[in-house]
Amino acid sequence: MTHPAEPLVLDPAGADPHAEGARLRARGPATPVDVLGVRAWSVSDPALLKRLLTSPDVSKDARRHWPGFEEAVAHWPLALWVAVRNMFTAHGADHARLRRIVAPAFTARRIAALRPEVETIVGGLLDELAALPADTVVDLRARLAYPLPIAVIGRLLGVPEEDREGFRALVDGVFDTTLDTEAARLNTERLYGLFHAFIAARRAAPGDDMTSLLLAARDEEGDGTGLGEQELADTLLLMISAGYETTVNVIDQAVTALLTHPDQLAHVRAGRAGWEDVVEETLRHEPAVKHLPLRYAVTDIPLPDGRVIAKGEAILASYAAANRHPDWHGPTADAFDLTRPGKDHLAFGHGVHFCLGAPLARLEVATALRALFSRFPGLALAVPAEELRRTPSLITNGHRTLPVTLGRPAD
Fold first, then answer.
1. Spatial separation of the C-alpha atoms in residues 135 and 139, rounded to whole Å
2. Angle between helices 275-285 and 262-269 (to 10 degrees)
3. What tens digit of pLDDT does each residue of 232-251 get?
């Protein structure tokens, strides 16, 4: 294979991710790309990507392992993605420390205990929809996909209901990769203003929530093992953004896939596939995150084709392209198929950075889908599928709106 010398410029708006993914795969297991002006190696081969995601030779700590860090923080629109101080950008023992602090919030027991609350929230949202005239065009992203995860993570962290919309709008800005550097900087400034005010409020009036527990551990222990002040704000940012934005997109994409593939919805209704199959195939077929910036080579890393990712070079995990790789899922990798025997994917990452919130996201999506399609058996898209507009991002993978007609609710 001849490898192109020039990097492939990724579309900031992410308008056609599947064509882009095909181009990446055609250029080999890894290929140079331009990410809003920053050069990185996009890895789209699943075997290579899994190897790199578990290799001690690959770091997420830009301060220690990326010579381009200072320049990126000053001028790159995605500066926040490499500058935060939390699990997302930590490496080695530091990552283990931060993950250990947050992990108790996401144990299997705690997630199971949230099930009744998730079902109650979903039921309330569907009750509101059922009260509308049957022919009303409803934006299901705004009326179900958004409010469910922001309510769940808001309650988990103790974010007051009246503040959740403010966080939501600013978190959306973090994922909007069409913002220029100044707009991204202002969005980050406003976001931290909200977080610091929220932290001060929880410190003054603690409750039975994760933020209050993290604050108590920080303020009482003082032994250096808890979260620093910046780590606390950035950990809350990670939990809200990862716990909200990604789940919104999976609900959005799952509904879209089922409404545009009636044969697949028929499998579910006939019992040939379950709602968990819908969740996993959606995560494979349309993962919530297309590309995740960034990782860095700690040392020179030889590639299978003889090229080398040099020490200090940036690495981009291109999950959407990897999930549809024919070496992994055969010639039907691009198809949405609930009966596919293997639905393995990298939507939640791989290795030590595997998403802690994956069980919660799966619970929320399956609960929402099961209840939605049971309550509204005549649910249909209100516009042709090709008219759905994607969110302006090379990172996140959803639609700006999801207009549907509900039909008459079931008795």
1. 13
2. 150
3. 899 888 888 888 889 999 99
